[in-house]
Amino acid sequence: MTTPQRAPFTAARELLAQWEFVHADCVWRDGRFTAFEIVGDRLVLDPQTPVDTSNLTDVFPNFTVDFSGATYVGGEASSHGSCGFFFKRIGERLEWMLFSTTSEPFVGVEVDGARLRFRTQLGDVWIVDGDSLDRILIERTASRA
Q1: How many beta carbons lie within 10 A of that of residue 61, not counting itself?
Q2: For a disulfide at 57, which of 23, 32, 73, 82, Cβ 3.0-4.6 Å?
Q3: 116, exposed or middle or buried, with CB in 10 Å at 0-12, 13-18, 19+?
Q4: Element (H, E) at 38
Q5: CB-neighbour burial class of residue 78 (10 A; exposed 0-12, middle 13-18, buried 19+)
Q6: pLDDT digits (tens, 9 = 90+) for 114-144
Q7: Contact 130/54 with Cβ under 8 angstroms?
Q8: End-to-end CA distance of the chain, in Å?
Q9: Are strands 125-129 and 115-120 parallel, antiparallel or unpaired?
């Protein structure tokens, strides 16, 4: 269930300090939210589509992994069972975050060279190449392909 409407937030780190985030298909980096859509097996950023930053949901971590000076966290949201998120933090500084309304909760991450492989509870894998959120590839499980 989503939390009540509030004034828009622009600082994702403020939200995460309260374990809340924007309930929308979006990424946060460089101080702004950007909408995305999934086209085939790719995530496509859409900077022209506005993100409603007043619609918030509680988020709950399912994993935390430290790697190469960064901390990666992922999990689920209280708003709906199909929602998931993951983010990268260095110390207390949030580097980037992704929230999806359709991914299913994220339950783990593996490091594969420069790639991060975030796994959902259904077995799909969202692959982030370094910090390139604009080039995310989604490997679907055979039953969902």
Answers
A1: 15
A2: 23
A3: buried
A4: strand 32-39
A5: middle
A6: 899 999 999 999 999 988 998 899 999 866 5
A7: no
A8: 28
A9: antiparallel
Residue 101 tokens read as: 């309304």
For the chain, give the longest Cα–Cα distance: 42
List of residues 6+ apart from 75 with CB closer than 8 A: 59, 60, 61, 62, 63, 84, 85, 86, 105, 106
| Candidate from 16-20, 106-110, 141-145 with smallest mean pLDDT | 141-145
User: What predicted TM-score, i.e. pTM, was given to this entire model?
Assistant: 0.86
Taking the C-alpha atoms of residue 4 and residue 139, their distance in angstroms, rounded to an integer, is: 34
Yes or no: say if 40 and 50 are a contact pair by the CB < 8 Å rule: no
> Which of these, 37, 34, 84, 26, lies nearest to 59 by C-alpha position?
84
